[in-house]
Amino acid sequence: MNIPGYRVEKEIGRGGMANVWLARRESDGLAVAVKVMHANLASDPSLVERFIAEGETHAQFEHPQIIRIHEVLRLGDGRPALVMDYLEGETFKDLLKREQRLSPEALFNLLKPVLAALDHIHRKGFVHRDIKPENIFLCRSRGPVLMDFGIARQVDRNTRFTEAGMAIGTPHYMSPEQARGEKTDHLTDIYAVGVMIYEALTGRVPFDAADSFAIAIKHIQDVAAPLPAELERLQPLIDKALAKVGSDRYQTVADLLADFEKGLAGKLEPTRPVSAAPPRGTEVIRGAGTEVTAAPKKRAPVLALVVGVVLAVAAIGGYLALQSKPSPRIAGGGGGGAPPVAKGTAPQPVAPAPVPVKPGAPTVAAPSKGADVAAVLAGNHALKEARAELQALLRAVDRDGPGSFKSLLALRERVRAEKDLADLDGELVPAINKTGRRVALDLVRQRKLSSPAGACARDIIEAWLKTGLRDGGQEEAVAGGVKAYLALARAALKQGDEGKVSGWLEKARDFAGLLGDRGGKLLAGTDYAAMGDELKQLRQRRIARQQQQEARRQQQRALLDQVWALLQQNQPWQAEAQLAEIDTGILPETEVKSARTAVVAAIGMRRSQADSLLERARESVTKSRFGRALDFCDEAQRAYPRDGLDLSVCDEARRRKAELLGSWAQQNNVDDITVIKTK
What is the pLDDT of residues 172-217, one digit of tens each? Predict the structure, then answer.
């Protein structure tokens, strides 16, 4: 197994939908679990979408008791993969299997942190929809962790695999509305929490039967057996959490936790006995060991209920088929060696036994096998459901154009694979073309041409073309994208940005390439070629500038070399003049600065030399050696031929020398002082 950026160590879990590998991130050695979809499932867009949705859902949660998804990847063979925390411990299910029952206090302390995580996702507007002991991991380092968001969704968002009418979840933990295949919200999770609490306290689930169909009926119609006498203080909690109608349940997880705490202290008010109540009218449903007395003359609601349950069970079967093998474990095991893999077996539908019906009571006949019932009723309604799904997707285009379009494509794949849905293909093709054109052009207008992945014009057009459908909207959208890229290239040309021009032109060519040969013709009708010529000219001008800059650099380098040569010849003044001719920004500043420092130092040495000579001149004046003093003055001015020297001693030496000569001439009656000077 090759996973880019990670070093795979071993396989630690295997399930019906994916395998899980222990790996280490190459950048820092972090141990992670990588969940990789099976290759034979990766060709199903709806399954891939669900798999990726799990990672995207996780990414919106930041809570210590929710398993983290570090990255969503696509492997080289196209399979999606989720990189997540690697945990060590066991599942809540493992604990219940070993301990059978938990004390109320121990159960409260165990569930409190993970239910805080569930409350967090509810506040974010999401529903988990598969709360059960297997999906709570008791991590040694972090405590209870909520995981497996594979079927979670936002409350106000439907997808093809989460539409009302399709029940997804685990039968023993399903709410009545899930069992009926109705739309769900966070109250479904609260019902599942109630089931878990009941199971942990009593050692059994509240509703059990031989097959999924019978379990679903019990969730809808039956009332859970009361808790044992020693747990009676928590009966109000169970009654409210397992209420058949959502509005009668706890409205938040926080409310449930608050009552749980009160119940531990015996402060909950006792509830009245609850009787089973069907959701729509009161009908007789026989089979699966369940009987509810009914008022006659209301056959249609009964049929609707059975149809809902049968379709729900059919959907459960499809979901469990993917989970029938051990679920991929995202954690280490309780002991040494490889981490444990959760074990489970998909429920097998068993035919409910026929029961005599009271005379005059309306009934619905049950075939010999529950699976046959599902097949017959689902077949009768498949086309209607698919058409309803089509309409729902078309209505959702305004909210999520790219997502709705991809769901339309997935729906067509399903329609083409199921002969019962063949009649819908004629409606789907124009809907796909119309929606594809609208979505692609909207994305082009928004300049979402090649990103973000999955929600850009390129991905939509590419997926559209892969269907084999041909529509003028495809070329229109591609032309719009090419035009947008060329506009960006034109703007970059005005700025003289050669790199951007080249990049935008390449993107324009690649975008046109979506149409194959038609893309070449499309480009020929634009100014793509003309801009290519301008790009060549831009490159030529750049090369000419570079050559000029190189020539200038060489010339400046020669000047700098001459500065050093003059310094070596002890000619700092000439070196300083040469240094002044060097322009900044051409040669490395450090080199120029080094030469400048050397020149300043050399001139400083000359100044020090001149000051020393002037000091010797002063000493000569004090000794009345005025000629010698003036010699020192001359040497000092040659050493530092600039203003700034204190030459007062030189003036004094000249004055006193002149006075001395004048005095001597007077004494010797010499009229021509010039003669004296020459002697």
Answer: 999 999 888 888 899 999 999 999 999 999 999 999 998 887 898 8
What is the tens place of the pLDDT at every residue in 321-361? 444 444 444 444 333 333 333 333 333 333 333 333 334 43
With left for phi above 0 and alpha for psi between -120 and 50, is residue 100 left, alpha or beta? left
- How far apart (Å, rounded) are the C-alpha atoms in residues 18 and 341? 12
612, 600 Cβ separation under 8 angstroms = no
* 69: β partners: 84
- Residue 622 CA to residue 616 CA, distance in Å, equals 10
Q: What angle do CA 327, 333, 338 make, to 5 degrees?
A: 85
Report the sign of the C-alpha dihedral through residues 413, 416, 422, 427, in that order.
Answer: positive
Query: Are the beta carbons of 95 and 144 closer than 8 angstroms?
Result: no
Per-residue pLDDT, averaged over 467-484, amounts to: 92
Q: Cα–Cα distance between 275 and 215 in angstroms, integer?
A: 18
Contact present, 283 and 301 (Cβ < 8 Å): yes
CA 109 to mean position of chain CA atoms? 33
Spell out a b/e string for 368-398, using b for 16 or more CB atoms within 10 Å of the CB, else e: eebbebbeebbeebbbebbbebbebbeebbe
Long-range contacts of 121-126 (CB under 8 A, 24+ apart): 121/61, 121/63, 121/66, 121/146, 121/152, 122/186, 122/189, 122/252, 122/253, 124/60, 124/61, 125/154, 125/155, 125/156, 126/57, 126/60, 126/61, 126/152, 126/153, 126/154, 126/155
CB 317 within 8 A of CB 212: yes
> Has residue 546 got a pLDDT over 60?
yes
Neighbour-count burial of 666, counting CB atoms closer than 10 A to its CB (0-12 exposed, 13-18 middle, 19+ buried): exposed
- DSSP H helical ranges for 513-639: 517-524, 528-568, 572-580, 589-622, 626-639
pTM of the predicted model over 0.85: no
More confident residue, 381 or 556: 556
Alpha helices (H) along 349-497: 370-395, 401-417, 425-445, 457-466, 472-495
> Is the distance from CB of 118 to CB of 189 less than 8 angstroms?
yes
**Sign of the CA dihedral 663, 664, 667, 673?**
negative
Residue 331 near residue 68, CB atoms below 8 Å: no
Contact of 185 with 155, CB cutoff 8 Å = yes
**Rounded-to-integer distance, Cα 599 and Cα 606, Å:** 11
Distances in Å between the Cα of 74 and the Cα atoms of 9, 83, 140, 191, 415 are 19, 11, 31, 36, 27
Averaged over 528-543, what is the pLDDT? 92
DSSP string, 191-234: HHHHHHHHHHHHSS-S---SSHHHHHHHHHH--PPPPPGGGGGG
Evaluate whether 323 touches 346 at the Cβ level (below 8 Å).
yes
Report yes or no: 68 and 139 within 8 Å, Cβ to Cβ. Answer: no
**Structural domains of the chain, with CATH:** 6-86 (3.30.200.20), 89-328 (1.10.510.10), 370-535 (no CATH), 588-679 (no CATH)
Mean pLDDT of the chain: 81
Q: Which residue in 222, 312, 238 sits closest to 271, CA to CA?
A: 238
3-state secondary structure of 288: coil
pLDDT at 531 over 80: yes
> Which residue type does 397 have?
V
Write out the two tokens for 94: 């493992």
Contacts of 357 (CB under 8 A, 6+ apart): 284, 286, 363
Q: Count Cβ atoms within 10 A of the Cβ of residue 643 and give its class: 0-12 exposed, 13-18 middle, 19 or more buried.
A: exposed
The C-alpha atoms of residue 215 and residue 349 are separated, in whole angstroms, by 11
Two tokens at 29? 């050695």
pLDDT (0 to 100) of residue 535: 93
